[in-house]
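Dear U.,

For the methods section draft, I wanted the exact inputs and outputs in one place so we can describe them consistently. I've listed the two proteins in the order they'll appear in the manuscript figures. Please don't edit the token lines directly; just add comments below if something needs changing.

First protein:
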Amino acid sequence: MTNLNEISETKQRNKTVRKDLFEAKKLYQSKEYSKALEIYESHYKQYPELFNKWDRIFYSWSIYQLNVKDQQDEVELFDSVELITELIPQADLNKSPVCAYTLSVFKVLNYLKDNNDWEYMLYWLDKLNPDLLDEEQGQSGDRIFPSNREKYYNFASKAFLECRDYQECIDVSKKALQSLSKFANNSDVWYNWRIAKSLKELNQNEEALVYLKEVSKVKRDWFVSKEIAENYYILNDTDNALEYITNAVLTKDPANIKVNLYYLTYRILKDDNPDLALKHAELYAALKLQSDSVLPDDIEELLIDEESLDANQLEREIKDYWSNFRFKDQELQYGTITKVFEHGKSGFIKSINDESLYFKSFEFKDNRKFMKVGQYVSFYTQKSFDKSKNRESLNAVNIKIDD
């Protein structure tokens, strides 16, 4: 008799729980998230086996709405998302429009990125299967946002690099390049960049240069040239190292963000051109001292007179040197400006050899009011990469009015 009573009580209890869970679902659909969550939490602690697939899904969404979506408390956020990943599996976003599991894990990943907690990010990345993430990009005006799959690879590539797991960084970055069919805002550049950085750390400098050259086709930033120069320096190829040092020094970026470039240049030049090397060491020291940073031993050993350092003057002298060095093997060319685009940022010059050369306005060294069609100018040329035509090209640079 006792057993029959227990069975009857269990059936009645299960029926009551199921009724409550149905009511919780209706509450969630009415956006009464707190009431829904209260029911789900009370029953899940005692009777998790009575939760079917849809109960777990709506329980997960209730947690997301109240404890994840706008959560600022770190412990509450992590605990809530951990529970969601136990309640439901990751949905295939190529077939489903939305997934509480995926949304919640990305919430955590974004939080960890903002706090530079790359090591813990690896734990959470392991909860996502990138093949179940969609490649639908977002857009707001002209701005393109990465797809969920691309965001995953962005996080993973960066996290492995920051955690110094260089082979994993290479592997996941290569997989991103192979598996993603589209990239937001040329983000493929950064996979090549992280592969190159990792290869350098693994002493595979020649292979690193292959990827850096791909980066340089799109990004002409000083730090790309500096990275290429450093790889050539490690390979004892001074000539190529100095070519890229020139490109890096002559950008218009402020000297203080390029401080390590000047230190690298000192190291490259100290044996073959000690006077010029010293000038770079002095600029490096001046910039480091401005930020109260400790100088490395090899700079301290130079016994630089710190009180006489003038960072601005040193930068001018260094730029003058590299400006002359940049074109030392070139003959000055002449031509006429044939087009200036309406935005004023670029145009074309027709050389006396009848060659049409693209130029950017910052290469025009005289008053911009004279940068107009018909102006006769002198210039040098520099290799560039025409991404629209996927080929190397020559640009006109260091353009001046020819009197």
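Second protein (the one for the lower panel):
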Amino acid sequence: MPQFKPAGWPSVIPRIVTRDLTGLARFLRDVFDAKGEVRSGAPTEIRIGDSIVLISDGGGVREAMPAFLYVYVQDADETYRRAIAAGAESIETPADTPYGDRRAMVRDTWANVWQIATYRGNP
């Protein structure tokens, strides 16, 4: 069967179009310890944990398009603090949910909303 996607990539990959590609990439590295370098002429591949997020400037033909993403991290409280320190606006402070996640929510300066969670098990 022919390969229909790059090896190791999932079938669904979020993509964010922004007017500040370098700034958003820096935010993701600072807050989520993301890996990946900004590329020109192609979407920038950012890895957060075992996931991929593509970010690009739209090549001048696409308008900015923010995302709403749920991200599991080792420590939701610490990641939330890093997001606020990096300029994000708090939507929800860290709190325990009835389904076992400790979760917070922020909006970055590019209008992306990030739900930041650590699974703690069923209550």
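Candidate sentences for the figure legend, describing the second protein: The chain has a mean pLDDT of 94. The longest strand covers residues 89-96.

Thanks,
Y.
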